[in-house]
Write a structure and sequence with these properties.
By secondary structure, the chain is α/β, with parallel strands linked by helices. It has helices at residues 31-41, 54-65, 83-88, 107-115, 120-131, 154-164, 166-177, 180-197, 205-223, 227-244, 250-274, 307-318, and strands at residues 7-17, 20-22, 45-48, 135-142, 145-148, 285-289, 292-299, 322-330.
Amino acid sequence: MGAVGMFDDDIYLKRLDQKVWQFKDNAPTRVELAVLEYLKDQGFSGYFTEHFNYENTLLGMMCWCNRDSYFTEKRKSLAVNRISDAFDYAQDGFYTSPPFKTHKFYHSDLFHNAEMFTSEKIKEILTVWQRKNVKSDFCGRRYLKPRPASDLSADELISFYYAKGGKDYFLSYLEHFFNSEVQALKKRSRDSIELLYQNPSDNLDVLRTDLWSSSLHLFQCLSKGTRVAWDQSNHHLDELNSKISAVPDVKIRDDLFSLARDISDYILTKSDGIDRWLIYSVLDLEVWDSQGVASVEVKAPRDRLSVSQKKQLEADVKYNKRSWVIYVHEST
């Protein structure tokens, strides 16, 4: 048992070049993928987190694609590429149309889609994605660009879905980061700022932009799911309050101050319960077996854990989440 995480593990792989490693006689590759091959040989399933994010994939399927109308759409690409976009561009979301191109659904529609989701839909939706040659962040990333759906496996997604805890886990995630309460706060913010846009005064242009930007950054912090972002929310709230004080219209200013107080109350009431959901660092590999999901950090010779990685491993211990570090050594 290591000092942090679930345990530390030492494995030996062939090193063919400075950044090229090989497990058994498999194709040479980067060290994280070679370790993933080792873990699969040990009975795990898994993926490299720089390439895929199955949670995001499944949330996209659940909220955006689990509706009859999706299967008859002529559009080939997905109208949204991240789960946050699905909620922010909703009719009752943060963005306004125009100037932004919002979609036609409401928060309640997206949640209803998720609540009606079953594992059988994973293969059905992925088949449509692959037939339409979808490339999206919902499918992962490849060389900093959206990954094609052809790189995804329905069987792996279904296996991961159940390993995470099935629909209950994903609905709980949505309740923590995209609940109706925070959606209502986004809409109130949008509506108040829109009132300023109805005033033609050029003197308000900078203020309107500043208010919009501060509000956007604040709400992004509340839905990003990282410890750093959540901790920054109070900073952005202070920034928002300073901008509100410059609003000349008394009614709008009072409404915005009231909104800021409600956002502050929301952060305060959610902070304790959300702690176990926030991440300090995304570790290299996400793997799973019959015991559930685990996160694995891979370290080649002379690599060291960062401060955020150590905090993540310590948080995993605190909340009984499986995680460990694999230290890779050159085989002789």
